Amino acid sequence: MLIFYLALVSFFAWIVSTLAGGGSPFILIPLVNLLLGAASVPPVITIGMFLGNAHRIMLFWRDVDWKLTMWCAPGAIIGAILGAYTFTQIHLDWLQLLIGIFLIISVFGFGLEQKETTFKVKAWYILPAGFLKAFISGLVGATGPVLNPFYLSYGLVKEQLLATKATHVVIIHLIKIITYSAFGAISTQEIGAGLIIGLVAIPANLVGKYILNNHLNDQQFRQLVLATMVIGGIWMLWGQRDLLIW
Predict the structure, then answer these.
(1) Which label site among 17, 53, 183, 246 has the fewest CB atoms less than 10 Å from its CB?
(2) Which domain holds residue 84?
């Protein structure tokens, strides 16, 4: 039954992720936490996200922004190593609160930017941004669409955003897998659960790509991305509500 529930929810999560530019961890993290425990969330999600996004790169290979990726890689690699190592030493729940607040604020900030200015972020901005994303991802498993405001402001939409983001995510999660393994932070059960999440992504990505290409325009895609960020931010705050009450 564990395999069935994990596969079913993962299939739905990957379709949503394709249409909204991310967000699958928001659906998968609570389930993994319920089935395997909080300590298993980072390694399981890391393996699943690595495999699913690797397949997504294959589907959208021609749309990858390689200039942006070259700027992202150095920061992402260093951040992933430091974050994954820190995870093996401590666990910081309050980071989820900061990410949730950031996602919600970013949506409103992006909306104001679109109305009031033509400001565009530059490619090199993703070097420090990628470092922070990778570091926090190493600690909590995944950060969700935390860099989506950057991608949108840079000018990426639909296939370009998905392909480029997937490439950056694969870099981060590959380094995390290596680091988790080096410090003995991945069990056989966690590898199996991660493989289920990643393999189910193959048919789900194909379904999502079909819907994206045939039933979703650029504006609708942007709206879904922003909506997912708000929902994800609220979900993260709710998940850590005990810290807020305290």
Answers:
(1) 246
(2) 2-245
